[in-house]
Design brief:
elongated; mainly alpha; Chromosomal Replication Initiator Protein Dnaa, Chain: A
Length: 162
């Protein structure tokens, strides 16, 4: 079983990557947008997914409980109206931080591997359908030439190999 401390470290790394910041720098007093946004998302995930108290979250990022409450109250507005913030948050798969049991992680990994395989198969099928449609279109065009008495043009066209 993965500990909460390990989950928090992974969360910090993922937020750093998504927001393009060093999470250790987010604990300073900087008001730069990327640092504030990273702290805001961190507070949101810690509170609502890891069920941490305001004080506990604040201790991790050197903020008091009132600042954490402010972050949580402003999260929805940022997500709804700030496209850059939303894009960065969407890079994170927040539900992944709820999976802490090794057996569940392995099960999720197998499920995702199967999903990737199925998506690859669908992509392959889509390519085959597109090839078939292209061949049909070429045949329709050639038939149209034949109907118009332009069959000699058919010899000048380059046909896609099957």
């Amino acid at each position: 079983m993965i500990s909460r401390k390990e989950i928090i470290e992974v969360l910090k790394k993922d937020i750093s990557k998504a927001f393009g910041v060093d999470f250790n720098e987010t604990t300073n007093k900087s008001r730069k947008r990327e640092f504030v946004d990273a702290r805001l998302v961190f507070a949101q995930v810690c509170r609502y997914h890891l069920k941490m108290k305001y004080r506990q979250i604040g201790e991790l990022i050197n903020k008091d409980h009132a600042t954490i409450i402010h972050y949580l109250n402003s999260y929805d507005g940022h997500y709804k109206y700030d496209s850059v913030f939303k894009e960065n948050v969407d890079k994170l798969v927040i539900d992944d931080y709820l999976i802490t049991d090794d057996l569940l992680i392995n099960h999720e990994l197998k499920r995702l591997e199967l999903k990737v395989h199925n998506l690859k198969m669908r992509l392959s099928d889509t390519k085959e359908v597109e090839k078939y449609k292209a061949k049909q279109l070429i045949n329709n065009v050639l038939n149209s030439y034949n109907i118009l008495g332009l069959s000699n043009l058919q010899n000048n066209l380059i046909i896609m190999p099957s």
